[in-house]
Design brief:
Elements: H1 2-24, E1 27-30, E2 33-39, E3 42-46, E4 57-60, E5 64-66, E6 72-78, E7 89-93, E8 100-101, E9 114-116, E10 123-124, E11 146-147, E12 160-163, E13 169-170, E14 183-186, E15 192-193, E16 206-208, E17 215-216, E18 238-239, E19 252-255, E20 261-262, E21 275-278, E22 285-286, E23 294-296, E24 301-304, E25 317-318, E26 340-341, E27 354-356, E28 363-364, E29 377-379, E30 386-387, E31 400-401, E32 409-410, E33 423-424, E34 432-433, E35 446-447, E36 455-456, E37 478-479, E38 492-494, E39 501-502, E40 515-518, E41 524-525, E42 538-541, E43 548-549, E44 565-569, H2 573-578, E45 587-591, H3 608-620, H4 639-651
Helix pairs in contact: 3-4
């Protein structure tokens, strides 16, 4: 029994001793460098456990080290973030035993100028040398097969690169923002060039691509502003979005016959580009008639153009962003074969001054001429039924445009910041004016709102400082928040009886506004609706019950003249004098309520205009909402009321 107990005790002790030895060997220091055990007799050099930025100067890593337990270990790896942020490390020598360098291993080693790697290294992790600003040269080990994402991103002193066999892929942003990189040569083993691989390499002038390259990723050479030309090998089958975008000096590009997939905007923002060509034999794309453009053959859609493009008469559509950011484009003839123009097709073509769109075009996409700051005159096709979102957004020189007679909607920001437009004629077919449609048209002084319009959107006419007066027809049932915000020239406004609310900020900062007349149908006035309208002298509210007001900031009482007068129905004077906010008016005066027979439009008189208004209300199905429209007094509004009103006008 004693013997058995002793054996058990010795076994437990041996086990405990083994565990303690193993624990002691998990990590240790050797010659001022910290190591962690990774396997049987192998370690990785790791970061300083207490101060991760402590390593400095020249670091020579040995092939083998001795642990605290006396065991010898082979150094096979540099761990993730081992030297990350060690800004005082200047040189590192890696031994032949190392095969792996971890992610971010030397990230942000700002003064690291020299790294000696053995041929045995087969893996260098993501961002391993990212932001090593002093690294001037790098030789890839023979065992490497791939360059990982962001490996050399921001290594701004690299000037030339040779990417050897057997490397097959270059990862995302692998060499992005290497601002001094001038030349790149690839061995024929490279097949994949990742997204942003050389983006922002602004000094890059010479690139030799692999003859076996299959894919050029999104934005691979974006912002390579010194790149004047590049030869794309016949092995490439796909070119990603914005692959060569914003290459300021790129003058020519040829798409090989092998390419069957082109991303969006591959050459957007290349201002000196004059030659765009697709090799003969390409099954998907062509450059027919030497047009200096890329056309999708099956759909006859022009996908990509440049300043010298001549659109062939066989093209049916201009694609999204086809000429986007083509600043040097001054004129473009669109043939009658074209029926559709895609979104942002001419975005930021600042040199474009005139555009005639043929009658055959039935669809014009969103933001087509956005930021065409030189555009002065546009002719739109009569077949157009809507002005699309942002169509002329920021066309600051636009003076002349006629809206076709069949247009029913002007969408959001259609004429936003068209600061040169002085007048515009809206067609009688128009039903809605979208959010900010004419906002910041600072010279717009004359505009008619036809009686067909039912909706005026958010800040539709905000900052139109030259508008002194505007007639809002009875057809309008919705006046958006801030619709006339900061129309500082507006002097008077009469709201139609079709409205039941004055929305927030509707006339805020209309500093010249002196006269306001709101109908009896208004039941509430939103926050800041007339804020900072300190010139108001006459404010007529025809509602017999004071409309609800939720904030004292609706009016500018502090700056309002002592002669400012609120005019209300005689029967409601006392109610207004005790109603919150309303009672703050300096003067409240009653007026006798009068009823003008047949005054459908609420202008105080009966004319042929009221007949037109009544017909419009019937067509829109809203006639019963206007008590004045019930001419014959039968409690409903029908065509009979139109006849009665005409008879009344003929006999009076």
């Amino acid at each position: 029994m004693i013997k058995l107990t002793f054996i058990r005790f010795m076994a437990c002790s041996l086990c405990l001793l083994t565990m303690m030895t193993a624990t002691a060997a998990e990590d240790f220091w050797f010659n001022d460098l910290h190591y962690v055990v990774t396997g049987n007799n192998t370690v990785a050099l790791a970061s300083h456990p207490d101060n991760p930025y402590a390593y400095s100067g020249e670091v020579i890593i040995p092939e083998s080290v001795t642990g605290d337990n006396g065991a010898t270990y082979t150094v096979t790896a540099i761990a993730d973030s081992a030297f990350a942020g060690c800004t005082n490390v200047t040189r590192v020598v890696v031994p032949n035993s190392v095969t792996t360098i971890g992610e971010r291993a030397f990230h942000h080693c700002l003064f690291l100028a020299d790294v000696e790697l053995p041929e045995t290294v087969s893996t260098i992790g993501k961002a391993a040398f990212m932001s090593c600003l002093r690294l001037q040269d790098f030789t890839f080990p023979a065992a490497m097969t791939a360059i990982q994402d962001s490996t050399f991103n921001g290594c701004s002193k690299l000037t030339s690169l040779y990417i050897p066999n057997p490397i097959t892929s270059i990862g995302t942003a692998a060499f992005a923002s290497c601002w001094r990189l001038e030349t790149v040569n690839m061995a024929n083993s490279v097949e994949i060039l990742g997204d942003l691989a050389f983006a922002n390499c602004s000094a890059l002038t010479s690139v030799t691509l692999s003859d076996n390259l299959a894919t050029i990723g999104d934005k691979a050479f974006r912002f390579c502003s010194a790149l004047t030309g590049i030869t794309i090998p016949g092995s490439v089958i796909a070119i990603g979005n914005e692959a060569f975008a914003a290459c300021d000096t790129l003058a020519a590009i040829t798409i090989p016959a092998s390419v069957t997939s082109l991303g969006n905007d591959i050459i957007t923002g290349c201002p000196v580009l004059t030659s765009v060509n697709v090799e003969t034999g390409n099954p998907v794309y062509d450059s027919r008639e030497n047009c200096n453009a890329i056309i999708e053959t099956a759909s006859n859609t022009l996908l990509i153009g440049c300043q010298t493009t001549v659109i062939p008469g066989t093209v049916n559509a201009i694609g999204n962003r086809a000429f986007s950011e083509c600043d040097s484009l001054t004129a473009m003839a669109i043939p009658s074969s074209v029926t559709s123009i895609g979104d942002q097709a001419f975005y930021h073509c600042t040199g474009l001054t005139e555009m005639v769109i043929p009658e055959t075009v039935s669809h014009i996409g969103e933001n087509v001429f956005q930021q065409c700051t030189g555009l002065i005159t546009v002719t739109l096709p009569s077949s157009l039924t809507s002005i699309s979102k942002g169509l002329f957004d920021n066309c600051t020189s636009l003076e002349n445009v006629t809206i076709p007679v069949n247009v029913t909607a002007i969408h959001e920001k259609a004429f936003f910041k068209c600061a040169a437009i002085e007048s515009i004629e809206l067609p009688n077919s128009l039903k809605s004016i979208g959010d900010e449609a004419f906002s910041w048209c600072t010279k717009l002084a004359s505009i008619n709102i036809p009686s067909s319009v039912t909706t005026i959107g958010y800040q539709a006419f905000a900052h139109c400082r030259k508008i002194y007066g505007i007639d809002i027809p009875m057809s309008v049932t919705s006046l958006g928040t801030g619709a006339f915000y900061s129309c500082s020239g507006l002097k008077s406004i009469t709201l139609p009886a079709s409205l039941i609310k004055v929305n927030d900020y509707a006339f805020a900062y209309c500093w010249s506004l002196t006269t306001v007349d709101i109908p009896q149908t208004i039941d509430s006035i939103g926050d800041h609706a007339f804020f900072d309208c300190w010139e108001i002298i006459s404010f007529t509210c025809r509602a017999t019950t004071p409309p609800a007001v939720y904030s004292a900031d609706v009016f500018a009482f502090e700056d309002m003249s002592s002669s400012a007068t609120l005019y209300v129905p005689m029967s409601a004077v006392e109610d207004y004098k005790t109603a919150e906010v309303w009672k703050e008016f300096p003067n409240i005066v009653g007026f006798e309520e009068t009823f003008v027979f047949g005054d459908v439009d609420g202008d105080g008189k009966t004319t042929i205009t009221d007949v037109t208004e009544l017909i419009d209300l019937l067509l829109q199905g809203t006639a019963n909402e206007n008590p004045a429209a019930d001419i014959d007094g039968d409690g409903k509004v029908t065509i009979t009321d139109v006849t009665e009103l005409i008879d009344y006008l003929l006999t009076h």
